[in-house]
Amino acid sequence: MRLANLLLAGAAAAAVATAAGSASAADPIGKGLVMYMQMGGNPGDGATLARQTGAAQAADALGVELKPQFSAWAPETMIAQFKEALAAKPACIEIMGHPGSAAFHDLVKQATDEGIVVTDGNSPMTDLQAEFGTKGFGYAGVDLYAGGALTAKAMLAKGLKSGDEAMVYGVFSQAERGQSEKGLADTLEKAGLKVDRLEITQEVNSDTSLGVPILAAYIQAHPNLKAIGTQHGGVTGSMQQVLQKAGKKPGDIIVGGIDLGPATIDGLKSGYITATLDQLLYLQGFMPVVQCVMTAKYKMPGLSLNTGAGTVTPQTIDTLTKLIDAGIR
Q1: pLDDT by residue (tens digit) across 29-48?
Q2: pTM, entire model
């Protein structure tokens, strides 16, 4: 049985057993529902593929017609995509919190007033979840600050000490999304490290290859740098290339990141990446589709799932590679 069906059995069995069914018992419970879903990056990239897989398998199992949207992580594109989805009047829309609660509030209110289920993934919007949770606004993603802190603790365990120089490269300015990097930087600082916080521009956010020369130049300008942390999946994947370009060997600089894209896997296996937060992107795709069906069909409120389960290291990566290659981990 596929993982999708296993999860479906746990999430929906009780509802299926008790539902007053006008539809055939053989029909999937989400038959007839249309859902627009923001995937985040670009189709098939390392920080997006497993989310696509989870969403597609959930939609297939539940009978939902899925309309995926890709934004290259640009907040303004996410807002435009929500407006596009709203105009289509689907049953459900899943959004990402990168633009922030203020930017999304009026649009979410309009959608819920029209009877459209709106839920959230990857980056939280706590204010909107509190206001619209009874209408199905849930969250499937990492507790961002805690996830950043967990990454920092994995870095510290590799020998960093008080007084060491570190840099955290992230989207600190992006509403709640920036809490991930803040948790990472704060935790390193509490351990006594000297932390420089460097903002990722939107250009690098959308095309992380543009960050390679920036980071390589930073490393060369800071010869005493001991650690680099980031909570951007694309940047994590570029770190081996960055360090090689800067003339560094594996282990010269301790690197903490996020996600499990192909380049990140290579970086873990080579030792250039020390630890990466595994945020279970498959579940970030799968569970919003379940939320859509549970609310649209059975009026269930928004559910929260913290997908920041742990970190992957060079010592543990080999056990996951087959699942990663399948677009699940």
Answers
A1: 999 999 999 999 999 988 89
A2: 0.87
Q: Which tokens in the block code for residue 90?
A: 């689907």
| Calpha distance 115→123 (Å, rounded) | 23
CA distances from 218 to 57, 160, 167, 224, 245 (A): 42, 19, 9, 11, 11
CA 316 to chain centre: 21
Spatial separation of the C-alpha atoms in residues 52 and 97, rounded to whole Å: 18
Q: Which of the 8 DSSP states describes residue 124?
A: -
d(CA 151, CA 160): 13
How far is it, in rounded angstroms, from Cα 74 to Cα 285? 19
Is the CA virtual torsion 24, 25, 28, 30 positive or negative? positive
Closest to 289 (Cα-Cα) out of 113, 137, 62, 108: 62
Which is nearest to 267 in space by CA: 283, 280, 253? Answer: 253
pLDDT tens figures, 157-210: 999 999 999 999 999 998 799 999 999 999 999 999 999 999 999 999 999 999
- Distance from C-alpha of 129 to C-alpha of 150, rounded to nearest angstrom: 24
CA distance 140 to 305: 5
